[in-house]
């Protein structure tokens, strides 16, 4: 009898420690969107997988970077505010709120890590049903909505009801196995010791840090290319504009695009792409992400046109990556903060109305790139007015994108600056 009681005491102690650890993490992160404990398993995917297997329900995992402001309103609505999401989640899913990437299986949970909020739906055996969450230069919430999420959730429930008979159309939703499955072990991860400490708002491994590590590792191994920044292209890249509430309905086919040449039409739903069942725009992006950026073919099945084959031309993935958090740490890195100079200040300097200018407010001399820029003559309060003798006509993000698209580590970056009214020509060696 005492052995049985001892076993129960151990289980109760383990369960209590788990609750305390969960509460401590919530408090350290000041996570105020996680009050509905009866719905969300907090930051414990293994526990949720066991419960999903027991109850034979699909898993709904949300990945949220709590300190990030972007998508905060949508996150609050999903986690705490919306009755429709709450009811559907509580009745039909096992839901997990994952707030850090430490310990997450990077092979199992593959998605666009530049998102501030991402949802992933799966079976308890690890088979992926769908992804939800899309972001672009239009803004973090331009594609996310409660209505769109619920549409995807209902499609997931339909898939789950036919599982495993529909396994063939789901196999491609799982990416290739990752050699490194733990974020803390990624070879290109900076500040590893800091991240290994108990998670707070100051040392949280943000999702985009996964991409940062991939870029750094590729740089160190000589395999880096700017094409790595053209991740998860929108269906717009192949000529399809998808209704953001539906997630699968074509609302426009761009003239002369690959989709137009394949004779796809508006007002029909994308059912499958390359054999994969589609439940959201994120699902479309997943398929496109894994295609080469060279001449290639893609199969699309729609509700009206049926099967169509699209011919994509080399370079079709090219897109605006300025919104991506991982863009800033992608090489080459210009280690100075230079915001846009106001119009009034530009006028006083006599700059043309068509031109912009950036004022260097801070140089990161703690980093090798910033130290090199300082050694090469860059100073705080310098006004950047030209790059390679071309007048500046871009903002801060566009300036950094320009550097990453047209230069590589080891190149010289030619800048023209104004310093106390005097024009100076600088050659900044890009070292990282």
Walk me through this protein's architecture:
The chain is an alpha+beta fold and 432 residues long. The protein contains twelve helices and 18 strands. It has helices at 2-29, 45-55, 72-81, 83-92, 146-161, 192-196, 208-220, 258-261, 281-289, 343-348, 368-375, 396-406, and strands spanning 40-42, 59-64, 94-98, 117-122, 128-132, 240-242, 250-253, 270-273, 276-277, 296-302, 306-312, 336-337, 358-359, 362-363, 383-387, 390-391, 412-419, 422-429. A five-stranded mixed beta sheet has the order 1-3-2-4-5, with helices on both faces. A hairpin with a 2-residue loop joins strand 15 and strand 16 (390-391). Helix 4 runs parallel beside helix 5. Residues 1-19 have low confidence and may be disordered.
Instruction: Write the element-wise H/E pattern from the N-terminal end onward.
Output: HEHEHHEEEHHHEEHEEHEEEHEEHEEHEE
How many beta-strand runs?
18
Q: Mean pLDDT, nearest integer?
A: 92
Strand content: 15-25%
Shape assignment: globular
Which segments are poorly predicted (pLDDT under 50) over 5 or more consecutive residues? 1-19
- CATH superfamily caption of the domain at 2-176: Glutaredoxin
CATH architecture of the domain at 2-176: 3-Layer(aba) Sandwich
**Helical amount:** 25-40%
Which helices and strands appear, and what pairs or packs with what?
Layout (H helix, E strand, L loop, with lengths): L1 H28 L10 E3 L2 H11 L3 E6 L7 H10 L1 H10 L1 E5 L18 E6 L5 E5 L13 H16 L30 H5 L11 H13 L19 E3 L7 E4 L4 H4 L8 E4 L2 E2 L3 H9 L6 E7 L3 E7 L23 E2 L5 H6 L9 E2 L2 E2 L4 H8 L7 E5 L2 E2 L4 H11 L5 E8 L2 E8 L3
Parallel strand pairs: 1-3, 2-3
Antiparallel strand pairs: 2-4, 4-5, 6-7, 8-9, 8-10, 10-11, 12-14, 13-15, 15-16, 15-17, 17-18
Helix pairs in contact: 4-5
